């Protein structure tokens, strides 16, 4: 059995066996509505891309009593006075199934293209488990641990591609400072089980201020790091500073 088949089999088995174990988790609980969040941002970036640019991001989610669905997409493109200096897009999705006592199973997948970081494309998928550490009106924190199959297709460097099994540890934190002011932190650490020199770090810190029920302003700082980059002239660090307008429906 190859890596892809193994990870797919584990994912399916976990999702099928993930029945709620807490009587408070009701399979017939009230279904949450689909929510859409669209974001337009001005970016000042440094690292593999040095330019001012515009970006767009989209999140679609639905949170029910037992099942939760998340889909995220982002597009970034930059140019200087003469040439394209950055182009990156990413789509990722995650399904969560609550099993009680704040625990949940999850399955996630991602696909991205970022040639200025050395990749023609990258994708990965796999199962995991999560735990809601805090869930209050003021603070929300959850941690997730995933077992992923990943495939990296390189744009540059001596190696054409690489596939590997890895572990991804992630957190999502929200602090409702006031009714209209929110601080958020999303971070992950993704490393290969086959080569400890291959790992990725990412952190996004954002401060959002609500203007109306559907419009908000935000500033955020995203920092990404890749160890064992595809080629020596690729910068290990990417940094983005965003000023955004957010629309929520």
Structural overview:
A hairpin with a 4-residue loop joins β8 (161-176) and β9 (181-192). The chain contains 1 helix and 12 strands; from the N terminus they run αββββββββββββ. By secondary structure, it is mainly beta. It is globular. The chain has a single domain, classed as Porin (Beta Barrel), CATH 2.40.160. The N and C termini lie far apart (44 Å). The protein has a 12-stranded antiparallel barrel.
Give structural attributes.
mainly beta; 12-stranded antiparallel barrel; globular; Porin; single chain; about 250 residues
Topology record:
Layout: H1 3-17, E1 34-46, E2 51-63, E3 67-79, E4 84-100, E5 103-114, E6 119-135, E7 139-154, E8 161-176, E9 181-192, E10 199-210, E11 215-227, E12 237-248
Antiparallel strand pairs: 1-2, 1-12, 2-3, 3-4, 4-5, 5-6, 6-7, 7-8, 8-9, 9-10, 10-11, 11-12
Helix coverage percent of residues? Answer: under 10%
Uncertain ranges? 21-26
Main structural class: mainly beta
What CATH architecture label applies? Answer: Beta Barrel
Percent strand equals over 45%
What string gives the helices and strands in order?
HEEEEEEEEEEEE
Mean of pLDDT? 86
Largest sheet: 12 strands, antiparallel, barrel
Q: Shape, please?
A: globular
Q: How far apart are the termini?
A: 44 Å
Name the strands of the widest sheet in spatial order: 1-2-3-4-5-6-7-8-9-10-11-12
Number of strands: 12
Q: So how many helices?
A: 1
What number of domains?
A: 1
């Amino acid at each position: 059995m190859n890596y892809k088949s193994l990870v797919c089999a584990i994912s399916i088995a976990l999702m099928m066996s993930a029945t709620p174990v807490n009587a408070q988790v009701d399979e017939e609980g009230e279904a949450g509505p689909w929510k859409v969040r669209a974001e337009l941002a001005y970016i000042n970036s440094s690292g593999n891309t040095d330019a001012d640019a515009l970006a767009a991001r989209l999140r679609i989610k639905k949170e029910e009593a037992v099942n939760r669905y998340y889909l995220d997409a982002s597009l970034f493109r930059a140019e200087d006075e003469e040439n394209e200096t950055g182009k990156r897009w990413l789509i990722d999705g995650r399904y969560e199934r609550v099993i009680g006592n704040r625990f949940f199973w999850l399955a996630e997948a991602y696909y991205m293209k970022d040639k200025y970081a050395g990749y023609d494309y990258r994708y990965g998928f796999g199962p995991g488990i999560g735990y809601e550490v805090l869930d209050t009106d003021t603070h929300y924190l959850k941690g997730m641990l995933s077992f992923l199959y990943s495939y990296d297709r390189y744009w540059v460097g001596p190696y054409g591609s690489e596939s590997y099994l890895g572990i991804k540890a992630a957190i999502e934190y929200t602090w409702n400072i006031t009714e209209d002011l929110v601080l958020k932190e999303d971070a992950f650490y993704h490393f290969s089980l086959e080569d400890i020199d291959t790992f990725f770090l990412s952190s996004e810190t954002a401060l959002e201020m609500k203007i109306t029920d559907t419009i908000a302003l935000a500033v955020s700082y995203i920092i990404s790091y890749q160890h064992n980059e595809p080629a020596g002239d690729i910068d290990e660090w990417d940094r983005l500073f965003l000023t955004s307008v957010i629309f929520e429906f």
